[in-house]
Amino acid sequence: MAATTGLMTVEEFQKLKDPPGAYYELQHGEAVAVTRPKLKHIRIQERLRKLLETRAANVGLVLVEFPYRPLPEHEFWAADVAYARWERFPGEDDDDDFAGAPDLVVEVLSPSNTAEEIEDKKTLCLENGALEFWVLRGKARTMTVYGTGTQKVYKSAGCVPVDRFFPDQPAIPVDEIFSDPRKKFVKNGSSEL
Fold first, then answer.
1. Which residue of 57, 138, 163, 169 is 20 to 30 Å from 19, comparing CA positions?
2. Nearest to 171 by CA among 183, 158, 160
């Protein structure tokens, strides 16, 4: 990485090449290498993406590794999962970046995440466009939903309401987010197909 003086801009950041086994995020003007997720993390991301996508219908976009710029000049992040209404996307220019935080930002905790990092992301997202910030803890099988001035923890057998984003759509069962689809196909060593 080339040395910079002061804070790195998004323009400078976009010229970087990702290191093997990682990618960069621009956090407060500093390029930070982020490691690629493990299979369990990916499985949780994909399961949640599918659950949100069925509820989003045609009102917005749900993506895994959703790139966004919560602030215009020194921030460029990727949410583990995110949702944004179509009207929040930049006009006709698909080469532009998503400005602000998506309506919903989800982080699936990894061993490399620190409490300070997650708190920082949560605060910046909620101050710059996100209506909610979700933190999923795979080992504990819990999900914490943060809004502006609110916090609620959902556990196994609980359901996370999504009516704030998708009116008239059913809540998401926590157990479905953390379910392992392989268990449907293997029972006592044989396939159920």
1. 138
2. 160
Give the Å distances, CA to CA, from 100 to 106, 125, 185.
15, 8, 41
Alpha carbon distance 137, 141 (integer Å): 6
Task: Please list, in sequence order, all residues whose beta carbon lies within 8 angstroms of the beta carbon of residue 76, skipping any fewer than 6 positions away.
Answer: 10, 13, 14, 25, 26, 67, 68, 69, 97
CA nearest to 83, candidates 63, 67, 112, 69? 63
- 45, HSE (Cβ side, Cα atoms, 13 Å): 21
HSE-up of 75 (CA within 13 Å, CB side)? Answer: 18
| Model pLDDT, residue 183 | 66
pLDDT averaged over 10-residue windows placed end to end, the chain, 193 residues: 65 77 77 79 94 93 94 88 91 76 96 91 96 95 96 97 95 93 57 41
- Residue pointed to by tokens 């759509």: 169
Q: Are 129 and 100 contacting, i.e. CB atoms less than 8 angstroms apart?
A: yes
* pTM, entire model: 0.83
